[in-house]
Amino acid sequence: MSLKNNDYSAHAISKIILSGEHAVVHGSPAIALPVFDCCAYTQISQINYKGLLINAPQISEKFIIHEYKSICNPLELTVLSFLKKFDLDIPSIEINIKSDIPIASGMGSGAAISTSIIRCLCKYYNFNLSSEEIYDFVFEIEKIYHGNPSGIDPRVIVFESPFYFIKNKLIESISISINAKFDIIIIDSKIRSTTKEVVEWVGEQKNIYPQKYNQLFSDISEISNNLKIELNGDNIKNIGYLMTLNHRLLKEVGVSNSTLDEIVDLALECGSLGAKLSGAGKGGIVLALSEPDNTKNIIKNLTEKNLDNIIFTKFR
Ligand code: PMV
Predict the structure, then answer these.
(1) Would the CB of 29 count as within 6 Å of ligand 1?
(2) pTM over 0.85
(3) CA-CA to 43 of 20 to 30 Å: which in 17, 224, 235, 275?
């Protein structure tokens, strides 16, 4: 997007979940990391037209807003909620949205797009919203489109920090430091899945089989608690072990599928120290842990096995 005078721009990063997805919706801790190289971008330009244009060419979406309305898509909703909150008239602007983040893949694309729109509107109106206020805003939008979200996506995306996160427990949810040196290779299964549907399905299963799911979530809690300690140390093998263990438990939760399992197995065969699905599952991405010196080699091995859909290769 080229920026003219009087144009405003903002971006937001994406995220990956290292452990605890789904369990986090039901009160267990999870650990998520920011991904700085895969972002959503918003640009606002003033236009000589009475109305507000929203342009998101990648998802073939184009909207023209002339007045407040209640039924709208997530992009319109984000913009209108912002205008409503501050009691603003519909401005004559064009909002262009672009994103490198694959949609419905577990990288928090929705939260990142909302965050970049809100940040850009803040610049346009010269408002100084705190990260906490932006978080609350994005979380409210997530609640409308994701049903029962834990809030982990906006937490990492807005604060741009690794988080040990517990739903509704702000004091126990903390930004964590990472001493271990590792890379994460992100492999996109190219299967899209809807977080809301998968989260609802897991909720239903938990109602039917409470004992099984409580045990699984308790085992996953232990993994997140151990990972928090390991990330501060230097034993990458332990981190990898915990990730693969988390994948096995997610399989029992019922959110993996044969493609994701196959990618996990290939990643391990190719030299990764641990691998797991990340995000809602039933599609989306797989994370493969590697020692920084071995990352290139693993990517080469994966590519030779026809896995060329590696969308991002380094975690720092
Ligand atoms: O939006 P996703 O696919 O990255 O999933 C987020 C993780 C879940 O635990 C499945 C849902 C949530 O709100 O925490």
Answers:
(1) no
(2) yes
(3) 17
